[in-house]
Design a protein that fits this description.
This protein is α+β, with helices and mostly antiparallel strands and about 170 residues long. The protein contains 5 helices and 4 strands. The radius of gyration is 17 Å and the shape is globular.
């Protein structure tokens, strides 16, 4: 019951479209910079679960419920992982993005076991409204980057009183 209250509280405060694009704007711009081809090989951006909720709402993640946890949206300690993959076969390398949430299950938290290869965290692939996954289960890099840019631009719409997602 407490987790349900926490999830509802987070959704009310951080995931309404006009709120999410305003709260997450700077983080989305930072993610965009890190995802560029000349970005870092690895970037770790640390934030609160409320920021993750806002980022996911701004990116229009398809509604989901995480398995094996009492906090079904953004468990405390969850990680948003955005991976870039490059397929180098052929003359034109293809780039892809995989998006997922990593978190501890309720049992892993209760048992206080260290995460390792024998006890990995939970992994949940995310889907985005308006983006189609490729046959490999990932998103085309250019499509994802345009989707990210659209979420960044939505912030500007709110500044002039427009619906950010029209």
């Amino acid at each position: 019951r407490l987790a349900y209250i926490k999830d509802c509280y987070g959704e009310i405060l951080f995931t309404a479209p006009i709120i999410s694009v305003n709260i997450s704007h700077r983080m989305l711009k930072r993610i965009q910079a890190e995802m560029l081809p000349e970005g870092h090989k690895f970037a770790f951006l640390c934030s609160h679960d409320s920021m993750i909720a806002a980022v996911l709402a701004a990116l229009k993640v398809v509604p989901y419920e995480l398995p094996n946890t009492i906090e079904t949206k953004t468990p405390i300690g969850c990680k948003l992982v955005l991976e870039q993959w490059v397929e180098t076969c052929g003359p034109n390398p293809k780039r892809f993005v995989r998006a997922r949430l990593m978190y501890q299950s309720s049992d892993q938290i209760r048992e206080m076991k260290q995460m390792d290869l024998d006890n990995p965290p939970m992994s949940f692939d995310l889907c985005f409204t308006g983006l189609e996954k490729m046959p490999n289960g990932m998103y085309n890099y250019d499509d994802f980057m345009q989707h990210l840019l659209n979420s960044i631009k939505a912030y500007n719409a709110t500044a002039i009183g427009q619906n950010p997602f029209l």
